[in-house]
Write a structure and sequence with these properties.
The protein is mainly beta. Helices cover 3% and strands 55% of the residues. It has a 22-stranded antiparallel β-barrel. Strands 5-11-12-9-10 form a 5-stranded mixed sheet. Strands 6-7-8 form a 3-stranded antiparallel sheet.
Length: 791
């Protein structure tokens, strides 16, 4: 259950004297109850995640209205958006506008989202700017995940499930308990193997007609409490992901002309039939292997070499976090959080999203073009220190400092022109157009301070400010360019840009007034600001933008500006009828300046990075829960109204050589109405047996899926239904469950963009000859049979 988290067991929080669940969140970097913290938070407990077999971030969007998640892609690896504000999933040069806080460390790669999660204590979704306490990015909100910690007694658990739609199985387990009186340990692991993550359309020329994936996650947690004044917690996690291609669940919409537009290369010299069937709801994907003319040679070193154009993906992530809390006195506590992240990801896929060559006997031969072979490597170190007071008086404070050092390498061979249809490079034998490497080094330093003042027993004034200084330096090298492309419109082989620098600093204040009308009613009003640093785009090609910059020596066109947010919200959190009824209401208004946007221009085959002049969001979030008089039956509901519009000039390339101004248009991924209603019913059958029934129905009013024109693709309104039924021991010693996610198999579009290599010009009816769109979609229905044991 979302928000009020009634579906959680008492272990997920605490309980008051009336046996009412009390959910603890860390929205202000300290333990506070969900009903008292003056922040709009949706909390989802680990027990809820297990009951619905949720092990991917994208799977709980139906429980958080206006949260939109896209997983996949060769760039950042995913996208999070909240209340209509998010960041590109294309480029890893962007930080996410919705910060991803993993066990207290804000990680800068969405591939942590892509990898999935398990053994989770709680997930909190904080809405609105959160720069004061979370620092990095967080202009739109925070998705905070806390993994489980060692238990006070020895405990063992194992879970296994089989998923019938995608033919996948999952096994996980943990061992947890005290090694000594002061040292606890928790070892947990999960393996997930999906055989039919994607089924290809009949006739797709590909070696793998079923695209699968595997995930392994292993984590060790040590919790050391040698004295009442010192506590230390260490987490080390390894994640391994393998799949049959970087492209996720992407279908092709054939546009107004209703035909599958051919893949047109080299100014029309090469025309390849598209091959796909234009059916965007059958969950059958046309993902051809790379054309033979483009697959023979790959610049080295490359894991794609020798694979013959067959897509694949591999990601390795090491994550470590050390936190200690030291009580300097009875009233002062020093907290240190050290984070380390090392990621190495390689993949190969072809981004024409179509193509085949006729073979003998009516067969089809691989004909995909636009292939790329990227390596994304990240090393991130972060250190945060916080000093917090706990005085008996009315005033308390928190002071903090944060430092991050990050190096990101984006090394990719690409086929943007596909010149090797005329012949491989006669010198090297390579069939790629070029190989380029973007290396971006980021250093961020910030200091913050917050103060809370209990003016009276009922009235609290709190606020603070964060100062941030962030610098980024990028270098671009192009060691290889196909001989046939070497000329005035491309950079020369061996090109090196030298340092391209970006630097910015910011002051982000925040102030909140909270009035405790009673023990069960809290009213608050907040003014908040947010900041997300700009940087240097890493999608520039050796043709187009990069060649122009190299000629002039001016690389300023590759720089995008910092994103800022300013606004506020007012809310009330209340409980009624002996706390059986919970009702929370928040109204908000925010203005985002220089919103960072990246889109794909399918005509120029070029990613376009820009800053939207201004996006204004306003709306209302309503959250309700009811512990009904029927024993064990709990109901909850969420409803969000959102009005998100561009409110200043925002020019985007129009595709026919001009520009279009999106001023006044609604923002993307911004439904006007979204909400859900959920029910949990625990039915005792005996002292050792209980039945659990649960359901969640979510509604989305629909939204625009792109931000390139005034007539972008619109996802119509839709409903989603999740259900769960289980039987087992009341203490969780054993359980059998049947779980359905998206029971009605509703397929909806998350984002859209122009399909590369479209034909230009207009047809006889005046419509674009090439108007096909790439639609990224959800996974469809999943049905799990699950068994678990706990000792």
């Amino acid at each position: 259950m979302p928000t009020t988290a009634y579906a959680q067991d008492a272990a997920d929080g605490a309980e008051d004297a009336d046996d009412v669940p009390v959910i603890v969140v860390q929205a202000r970097r300290q333990n506070e109850t969900l009903q008292e913290v003056p922040v709009t938070v949706t909390a989802i407990g680990g027990d809820t995640l297990e009951r619905y077999s949720i092990d991917q971030v994208a799977d709980f969007t139906s429980r958080v209205p206006t949260l939109n998640v896209q997983v996949g892609g060769s760039g950042s690896g995913g996208q999070l958006s909240l209340r209509g504000v998010g960041s590109s999933n294309i480029s890893a040069a962007f930080d996410s506008a919705v910060a991803f806080d993993y066990d207290g460390v804000v990680v800068s790669t969405m591939r942590m989202v892509q990898a999935g999660f398990f053994d989770v204590e709680q997930v909190d979704v904080l809405r609105g700017p959160q720069s004061l306490f979370f620092g990095k990015s967080a202009t739109a909100g925070v998705l905070s995940l806390r993994s489980a910690n060692p238990t006070s007694t020895w405990e063992y658990g194992v879970r296994g499930s089989y998923e019938f739609e995608e033919k996948g199985y999952l096994v996980s387990g943990y061992v947890s308990g005290p090694i000594t009186d002061t040292l606890g340990i928790r070892i947990a692991g999960q393996f997930n193997d999906i055989d039919e993550f994607q089924l290809l359309q009949a006739g797709t020329p590909a070696v793998n007609q079923k695209r699968g994936l595997t995930d392994f996650i292993g984590r060790v947690t040590l919790d050391w409490n040698p004295s009442d004044a010192f506590r230390a917690n260490l987490k080390v996690q390894y994640t391994k992901n393998e799949n049959d291609g970087a492209i996720g669940t992407a279908e092709i919409f054939c546009g107004a002309n209703g035909t599958a537009d051919p893949v047109v290369l080299l100014g029309g010299a090469v025309t390849i039939p598209a091959g796909y069937n234009c059916n965007t709801t059958d969950q059958r994907y046309y993902l051809s292997d790379g054309a033979a003319a483009l697959s023979a040679g790959v610049p080295t070193p490359s894991k794609a070499a020798g694979r013959g154009g067959v897509p694949f993906g591999e990601t390795d992530i090491w994550f470590g976090r050390l936190q200690f809390d030291l009580d300097l006195s009875e009233t002062l506590t020093l907290t240190s959080v050290t984070g380390l992240l090392n990621m190495d990801a390689v993949d190969f896929d072809c981004y024409s999203y179509g193509g085949f060559f006729p073979g003998p006997g009516g067969t089809r031969l691989p004909g995909a073009a636009g292939c790329s072979d990227p390596r994304n490597a990240l090393e991130q170190y972060s250190q945060e220190l916080r000093l917090a007071s706990d005085f008996d008086g009315p005033i308390n404070f928190m002071l903090g400092a944060f430092y991050e050092d990050r190096t990101f390498i984006f090394d990719t061979a690409q086929q943007g022109v596909n010149i090797s249809f005329l012949g491989a490079d006669p010198i090297t034998g390579f069939t790629y157009d070029w190989d380029k490497t973007h290396t971006t080094k980021t250093e961020a330093l910030s200091f913050f301070g917050s103060l809370s003042w209990d003016i009276t027993e009922q009235l609290e004034l709190s606020g603070g400010v964060r100062w941030t200084d962030e610098s980024k330096i990028q270098t671009i090298s192009v060691p290889y360019v196909h001989l046939f492309l070497q000329g005035p419109n491309f950079v020369r082989p061996g090109f090196f840009s030298g340092p391209i620098a970006f630097k910015d600093d910011n002051v982000s204040p925040e102030v909140t007034l909270r009035y405790k009308a009673s023990d069960d009613i809290n009213i608050f009003a907040s003014f908040k600001t947010g900041f997300k640093s700009g940087g240097v785009d890493n999608s520039a090609l050796p043709s187009n933008s990069l060649s122009q910059a190299a000629t002039s020596g001016d690389f300023s066109a590759l720089i995008f500006q910092s994103e800022k947010a300013k606004g506020g919200e007012v809310g009330i959190k209340s409980q009624w009828a002996d706390r059986d009824v919970t009702l929370n209401l928040t109204g908000y208004y925010y203005v985002f300046e220089d919103l960072q946007v990246q889109n794909f221009n399918a005509v120029t085959i070029q990613f376009v990075t820009s800053n939207a002049g201004e996006l204004t969001t306003k709306g209302v979030d309503l959250e309700a829960g009811w512990r009904t008089p029927i024993e064990g039956l709990n109901l909850s509901a969420n409803l969000s109204y959102l009005d998100a519009k561009y409110t200043a000039q925002f020019l985007q390339p129009g595709g026919q050589g001009g520009f279009v101004d999106l001023n006044g248009r609604r923002g993307s991924q911004a439904p006007e109405w979204a909400g859900n209603i959920a029910a949990d019913w625990t039915v005792p059958l005996s002292d050792s047996l209980e039945l659990f029934l649960s359901g969640n129905a979510a509604y989305n009013d629909g939204y625009i899926t792109d931000e390139t024109s005034l007539n972008d693709y619109v996802q119509p309104s839709f409903w989603l239904l999740d259900t769960s039924v289980s039987i087992g021991h009341p203490d969780g010693n054993w359980k059998l469950a049947l779980v359905a996610q998206n029971l009605t198999d509703k397929v909806f579009v998350i984002t859209s963009g122009g399909r590369p290599f479209l034909p230009g010009g207009l047809d006889a009816q005046g419509r674009p000859r090439g108007d096909d769109l790439v639609l990224t979609q959800n996974r469809g229905r999943q049905i799990f049979a699950e068994v678990s044991f706990k000792f």
